[in-house]
């Protein structure tokens, strides 16, 4: 189900970011790929990355704020904290660590869990941001016990210690806000110690009152230069909430687009990187009863996945199959309307170097000049092409109705070679802004 409001939308996406990679199919502790977890947003203790024991200690970003008469910024820092679950068997009044314990038919295993942690800091005024300051971000450790018949479970957490630094810089009518979160734990002796004191799945939710955030992916022409100058390390700030709102940004360790949302067909999280719900659900259903029992013993969240898939009806599975969406863009070929596209005659008349597509009411085809405005984020390299001017080399469509526009960059010294070899950059029509040749020569001063 789609979130009912803006706050729910932000939380749904933030939770997906928080748990991305937490468990991977087949969700068993014995699976080799679950021996190397915590893929995204890990802030390791100082020295861990250099020593080959963990990740870099910090993440930082810069966002743009358009303040009103009064403006306040709040920052919610979120992460997972590792929690080691040790199964212990009772023997002669003492508890001995074991890998596994079966109690009344239920299997319990030793495993690294994680718990959600977050702290809201602020609100901070623009004057405070312009002065710059740092705040401690700490989450306590501890040990908890759960009694079992014939044993117990101990859950141990190690303290997380970090610092958040905020800075502000006036840029015309905007304020550029810098946010850095850095792990300040003691250096770790090995990989196990490093992950125990790491911020896992770290990200921030930024909210403002009396101000507006500026999109860094699709800024207005007036804000484009300031947006391009913003620097980010290990994270990607995007507008969040309902489309059109400008009071929330999600600083994510995963590349996202503005206003990301969880697909309404997703009934629950599967935690698998680049997950495909239908395929994963079908594969989970093929697990044997013994394998499902092992998965349930791994983690309560794994157990929830197994139970949810076991309870799925044919209608639920059909819902996961998705829906057909109108891609909006229409190929405009030099083709007789009476010739079906699937015939040999159509194959002979569809010509990517002649065909075009309508974008913003303008037909673009080979030779058209366009400005690149990446928005789909299929490739991280697309970020480097934002705002660049390109020349269209071909337009073609596939049998799924998707339109692909091949371009070469005007300012690329090797553009002629790329065009000769047919090595083009490809974008969807809605990622391109048509430009006239005169406008390109006059405004962009391209020789």
UniProtKB/TrEMBL annotation:
This is Uncharacterized protein.
